[in-house]
Design goal:
This protein is 44% helix and 15% strand. The protein has helices at 24-35, 47-59, 74-88, 112-139, 162-182, 202-206, 208-216, 227-237; strands at 15-19, 39-44, 64-68, 93-96, 144-149, 186-193, 248-251. The structure holds NADP nicotinamide-adenine-dinucleotide phosphate.
């Protein structure tokens, strides 16, 4: 049994690869993991924004590198893991945050290319990274943790977001299955944010009637700041969650509670 205290939340000596780390929730998670002691490999497509995340972490005294990559491209993901391991050492924690949601409308108006694009980033991209991580942990007989950033749309339906919600429900299914398959060496959990103030939700926040409708369904009566999601990722990544796997951790201001 360990001593009571905050040590179990520490990520000192761990290496975390965070996808979607160039802005929004992924950036907040990267910064918070680094503040908890992890060395962070920050992955996304935009070099400049990734450099800004790395600078934020370094200026707070942390360690980070930028690993520019597209999660839909196998070779780029492999190269990003290689770069992370060369610079920081074996990756102990994977946070699958990269995501997209370019469609908001009646499912009958959705074209299949858009459906496939959303699934390829949100679901297949996350699986590609999880599989790369799982293989590497297995090859070194190690252990680790995966945190899949799903959504409250991974546990309830959200009108007008069919492909997004399908991708996030599938991510939850993937999370539960990998948790069972890879136990006890690798814990796999999902984090399910509600509505968060990022570029992702700029469109709905700018539409007054949609925004007001959404707020009525959020007991906390506001969207979250990305930082309010990041603490849960630190918990799920570290030893404080050593007996937690296959779980969906909802952080939604009460949205799904009623
Ligand atoms: N905002 C919300 O209300 C909310 C709620 C629940 C769940 N989520 C989930 O949280 C995650 C982050 O959302 P956010 O609000 O922070 O969105 P965001 O501000 O749009 O950030 C999305 C991140 O994903 C990266 N990304 C997108 N496509 C990528 C690709 N093909 N390869 C690599 N990186 C890619 C983006 O970087 P580049 O463009 O530089 O590649 C960016 O870093 C998503 O999975 C989203 O579904 C968001």
């Amino acid at each position: 049994m360990s001593e009571p205290g905050l040590d179990r939340f520490s990520l000192d000596g761990r290496v975390a690869l965070v996808t979607g780390a160039s802005r929004g929730i992924g950036e907040a998670i990267a910064v918070e993991l680094a503040a908890a002691g992890a060395s962070v490999a920050a992955l996304a497509r935009s070099d400049d924004d990734l450099d800004a995340t790395v600078e934020r972490i370094e200026s707070a005294g942390g360690e980070a590198i930028a690993c520019p990559a597209d999660v839909t491209v196998e070779e780029e993901v492999r190269a990003a893991f290689d770069a992370a391991e060369d610079a920081l050492g074996p990756v102990d924690v994977l946070v699958n945050d990269a995501g997209t949601n370019p469609f908001f409308g009646d499912a009958r108006d959705l074209d299949i290319d858009t459906w496939e694009h959303i699934l390829s980033v949100n679901l297949t991209g996350a699986f590609r990274c999880a599989a790369a991580f799982g293989r590497r942990v297995g090859e070194r007989d190690g252990s680790g943790a995966v945190v899949n950033v799903a959504s409250v749309g991974g546990v309830v339906g959200l009108p007008y977001q069919t492909p997004y919600v399908a991708s996030k429900h599938a991510m939850v299914g993937m999370t539960r299955t990998l948790a069972v398959e890879w136990a006890p060496e690798i814990r796999v959990n999902a984090l399910a944010p509600g509505y968060v103030e990022t570029e992702f939700t700029a469109g709905v926040r700018e539409n007054e009637s949609i925004y007001e409708d959404l707020l009525r369904d959020i007991p906390q009566d506001r969207f979250a700041d990305p930082e309010e999601i990041a603490g849960a990722a630190v918990y799920l990544a570290g030893d404080a969650a050593s007996y937690t796997t296959g779980e969906v951790h909802v952080v939604d201001g009460g949205y799904a509670a009623h």
